[in-house]
Write a structure and sequence with these properties.
By secondary structure, this protein is mainly α. The protein is built from seven helices and no strands. The chain folds into two domains: about 70 residues, 434 Repressor (Amino-terminal Domain); about 40 residues. It is about 70% helix and about 0% strand.
Length: about 120
Protein backbone atom coordinates (compact mmCIF):
# COMPACT_ATOMS: atom_id res chain seq x y z
CA UNK A 1 0.00 0.00 0.00
CA UNK A 2 1.26 3.45 -0.92
CA UNK A 3 0.67 6.23 1.60
CA UNK A 4 -1.28 9.27 0.45
CA UNK A 5 1.19 12.01 1.34
CA UNK A 6 -1.08 14.72 -0.05
CA UNK A 7 -3.83 13.69 2.39
CA UNK A 8 -1.32 13.67 5.25
CA UNK A 9 -0.07 17.12 4.25
CA UNK A 10 -3.59 18.49 3.99
CA UNK A 11 -4.38 17.27 7.51
CA UNK A 12 -1.13 18.77 8.83
CA UNK A 13 -2.03 22.12 7.29
CA UNK A 14 -5.60 22.05 8.63
CA UNK A 15 -4.41 21.13 12.13
CA UNK A 16 -1.74 23.85 12.02
CA UNK A 17 -4.27 26.49 10.98
CA UNK A 18 -6.71 25.35 13.68
CA UNK A 19 -3.87 25.69 16.19
CA UNK A 20 -3.31 29.24 14.90
CA UNK A 21 0.32 28.44 14.17
CA UNK A 22 2.49 29.75 11.36
CA UNK A 23 4.19 27.21 9.13
CA UNK A 24 7.63 28.51 10.19
CA UNK A 25 6.75 28.15 13.87
CA UNK A 26 5.61 24.56 13.42
CA UNK A 27 8.75 23.75 11.43
CA UNK A 28 10.92 25.17 14.23
CA UNK A 29 9.08 23.18 16.89
CA UNK A 30 9.41 20.00 14.86
CA UNK A 31 13.07 20.64 14.05
CA UNK A 32 12.82 20.79 10.28
CA UNK A 33 13.23 23.57 7.72
CA UNK A 34 10.32 25.74 6.65
CA UNK A 35 10.83 24.47 3.09
CA UNK A 36 10.52 20.86 4.27
CA UNK A 37 7.33 21.72 6.20
CA UNK A 38 5.93 23.35 3.07
CA UNK A 39 6.73 20.22 1.07
CA UNK A 40 5.03 18.06 3.70
CA UNK A 41 1.88 20.19 3.62
CA UNK A 42 1.70 20.03 -0.16
CA UNK A 43 2.44 16.30 -0.27
CA UNK A 44 5.59 16.81 -2.35
CA UNK A 45 7.79 14.84 0.03
CA UNK A 46 7.62 11.65 2.02
CA UNK A 47 7.47 12.36 5.70
CA UNK A 48 9.14 10.08 8.24
CA UNK A 49 7.34 8.53 11.17
CA UNK A 50 9.54 10.54 13.54
CA UNK A 51 8.50 13.81 11.89
CA UNK A 52 4.81 12.76 11.90
CA UNK A 53 5.01 12.09 15.64
CA UNK A 54 6.82 15.39 16.24
CA UNK A 55 4.18 17.27 14.23
CA UNK A 56 1.35 15.60 16.15
CA UNK A 57 3.01 16.45 19.46
CA UNK A 58 3.64 20.08 18.43
CA UNK A 59 0.00 20.47 17.39
CA UNK A 60 -1.34 18.56 20.43
CA UNK A 61 -3.21 16.08 18.25
CA UNK A 62 -2.95 12.34 17.73
CA UNK A 63 -1.06 10.67 14.92
CA UNK A 64 -4.44 9.20 13.93
CA UNK A 65 -5.59 12.73 13.13
CA UNK A 66 -2.86 12.92 10.49
CA UNK A 67 -2.89 9.38 9.13
CA UNK A 68 -6.59 8.47 9.14
CA UNK A 69 -6.93 8.79 5.35
CA UNK A 70 -4.34 6.00 5.01
CA UNK A 71 -5.76 3.58 7.57
CA UNK A 72 -8.78 1.35 6.98
CA UNK A 73 -10.09 1.18 10.58
CA UNK A 74 -10.59 4.89 11.31
CA UNK A 75 -14.28 5.19 12.07
CA UNK A 76 -13.71 7.17 15.26
CA UNK A 77 -11.59 9.77 13.47
CA UNK A 78 -14.08 10.24 10.65
CA UNK A 79 -16.94 10.53 13.16
CA UNK A 80 -14.93 13.29 14.83
CA UNK A 81 -14.42 14.97 11.44
CA UNK A 82 -18.17 14.82 10.75
CA UNK A 83 -18.94 16.32 14.15
CA UNK A 84 -16.59 19.22 13.38
CA UNK A 85 -18.21 19.75 9.99
CA UNK A 86 -21.70 20.09 11.44
CA UNK A 87 -20.70 21.88 14.64
CA UNK A 88 -21.53 25.37 13.35
CA UNK A 89 -24.52 24.41 11.19
CA UNK A 90 -27.97 25.86 11.75
CA UNK A 91 -31.10 23.70 11.90
CA UNK A 92 -31.72 23.87 8.15
CA UNK A 93 -28.13 23.00 7.22
CA UNK A 94 -27.95 20.06 9.61
CA UNK A 95 -31.22 18.69 8.24
CA UNK A 96 -29.94 18.85 4.64
CA UNK A 97 -26.61 17.27 5.61
CA UNK A 98 -28.46 14.46 7.39
CA UNK A 99 -30.65 13.87 4.32
CA UNK A 100 -27.61 13.78 2.03
CA UNK A 101 -25.79 11.40 4.39
CA UNK A 102 -28.81 9.08 4.54
CA UNK A 103 -29.19 9.06 0.75
CA UNK A 104 -25.47 8.39 0.33
CA UNK A 105 -25.57 5.52 2.83
CA UNK A 106 -28.59 3.99 1.08
CA UNK A 107 -26.87 4.24 -2.30
CA UNK A 108 -23.62 2.78 -0.99
CA UNK A 109 -25.37 -0.19 0.55
CA UNK A 110 -27.59 -0.74 -2.48
CA UNK A 111 -24.52 -0.77 -4.76
CA UNK A 112 -22.15 -2.56 -2.36
CA UNK A 113 -21.56 -5.31 -4.89
CA UNK A 114 -19.80 -2.78 -7.15
CA UNK A 115 -16.99 -2.17 -4.61
CA UNK A 116 -15.10 -5.24 -5.72
Amino acid sequence: MELDYKAIGKRVKIARIKADMAQDDLANQVGISAAHMSNIETGKTRVSLTVIVNIANALAISVDDLLCDNVIKTKVQFEKDLAEIVDDCDDYEIRIIRDVAEATKTSLRRDAHLRN
